[in-house]
Amino acid sequence: MHIPHGRAWVGVCICLAAAVAASAATPDVPATWNDGTTDGWYGFDVNNESARALNNPSTYLELALGEQYISCPEAVCMMADDSASQGHFTGDFVEAGVERILFKFFAAQCLPKQARLYICARTTNRKWYVPINLAAAGQWTQLAVPLDYSAGWTLDTAPTQEKFDADIRDISWVGVRIERNDDAGAQSYGLDDFVLASDTYGSGGDKSSGQQKTLTGEGDAPSIKPTLMPSAVGIAISWPSADGKMYDIWRTTDMKVGFVDSKPIATVPSATGADATIYEDMTAVGNGPYYYRVTEKTTE
Fold this sequence. Notes:
By secondary structure, the chain is mainly beta. The chain contains two helices and 20 strands.
């Protein structure tokens, strides 16, 4: 969707709200951008009040920012409205059973100065957002944001639980807003596997013809029951987590051997501000089967 010059950021919601009747939100159907297109997603330059091109360099959505020599930093929102991704990401999130929003984010050269996940209410034009916290540049970060007011969703003015609960009954657009790093050099940011997830998303655990399983495992540290989710490459493992904790991810392909003699395939920090953390095991390819165990890392 083209946003003409002269449209203010605050007016984006008005423009989109006047579009076609609200589509029904569709849970558990991720935008993967594997077809080489932007799938109808578009960019909006907040400061210049104009459209901003997005790219698909391979199999993800990219925002590329060139060198900048002005004092006002660029801020661009990567957005999907009723016309993007077949309308999967707009409409009544409550009726659709959306429990959380999952996506992967990539900062190539440096972390952005600010990053936020946005949803906009069609009727009230209120733009709800929650900060996105990234660990490091140069790697993909999996994020899981619960669709719950207590997860930190807020407004610029007077947010309340009542407003949030009413507004998510009809969402006109979703997006990720990036404010570039103060560095003047070229910067690029990526978005992938964006999905409105229900409470059953990924619970089947199928990967090709093999069946993945979550097991208690063995050892001294108590295991945390993870949930497996299919991803474009490998398997995504999600588990309940707490801020400031580190977690070991264990994997085996033979439960006769189990986890006793194995080492963690990864040690990851908890997702800040979220009640769950997700790790993508991109080496879990083929039919498996793969068995997983998650434990909280203790200080030795």
